[in-house]
Amino acid sequence: MKSYNFAKDVKTIRQVFELTQQEFADQLGLSRSNIIRYEVGEILPHKSALERVFSFAFNNDFNINAAKAMLYEDNKNSRMLLFHGAKSTIEGDIDHNHLNGFKDFGAGFYLSESYDSSASWVADRENGSCYCFYLETNDDFKVLKFDVSREWMYAILYFRGAFNKFTPSKEVNDIIDKINKCDVIIAPIADNNMYDTLNSFSLNLISDEQCLHALSANNLGLQVVLKSKKACDSIQFIDRLYLCEDEKKEFLKKKRELSLQSKSKVNLVINQYRRKGKYFDELFKKNG
């Protein structure tokens, strides 16, 4: 099971604050014997102990998760450092066939280049945590890269069901064929605001030009999707980062602020490109 390196973390936090095991135990409301046993990995912590330890560090200006993310970045060498925001524990091997609800590019294992974006994704989940991985670069990988483009827009619309009642064009089918044959996809992250914009386009409420420029108004970083077993076999687990409740609240606050800024930008762009471009049902033929 890929889990927290709690023994190392609890000792690191205690030493950063220059506390004895007894002083640390007193600060946390735990017994010294438990601190000793945690530090040598003799016992695994309950969620309440995890919360006490990591919230103590976070609320005393030591964000161990952000610090570890920077350390892993420094040590990545030729590898890619990637993060996965998980709603629950990852059991077993990484699965490239995983599909839970709609995904931007269909089945695959989804990661982000940013700790912040991965943690924000699960900050509203009770058991949300963030997994860290290195991906070994492989010249044999078929890598497909997208920027904020028409191809990226059509791919997300396809995998989110917008073409269920429409016939995809040759351009769309070619994009999907490339996606299904690749090992790794690197593409911009799409958040809920972007999905709302894409839905507005698929429902003929805005044109393709309005949609594309509205999507370009946001920059949430890049996601990496492992689409093949070969890619998943090349990933190395590093660590699982515990998100204490106060850190989650910080992420949710930032997420709300960014969402409001994003909506303002999108509304401005949509207004600027009014009456420009074509609508969904002008570009694609409805089935039947």
Task: Write a brief structural summary.
The chain is an alpha+beta fold. The chain contains 13 helices and nine strands. It has helices at residues 6-16, 21-28, 32-39, 47-59, 64-74, 115-121, 150-159, 170-181, 192-202, 208-216, 229-233, 245-272, 280-283; strands at 80-86, 109-112, 129-135, 143-145, 166-167, 184-188, 222-226, 235-242, 285-286.
Tell me about this structure.
- The chain has helices at residues 6-16, 21-28, 32-39, 47-59, 64-74, 115-121, 150-159, 170-181, 192-202, 208-216, 229-233, 245-272, 280-283; strands spanning 80-86, 109-112, 129-135, 143-145, 166-167, 184-188, 222-226, 235-242, 285-286.
- With 288 residues, it is α+β, with helices and mostly antiparallel strands.
- The strands form three sheets. A four-stranded mixed sheet has the order 2-7-6-4. A three-stranded antiparallel sheet has the order 1-3-8. A two-stranded antiparallel ribbon has the order 5-9.
- The longest helix has 28 residues, at 245-272.
- The N and C termini lie far apart (50 Å).
- The model has no long low-confidence stretch (mean pLDDT 93).
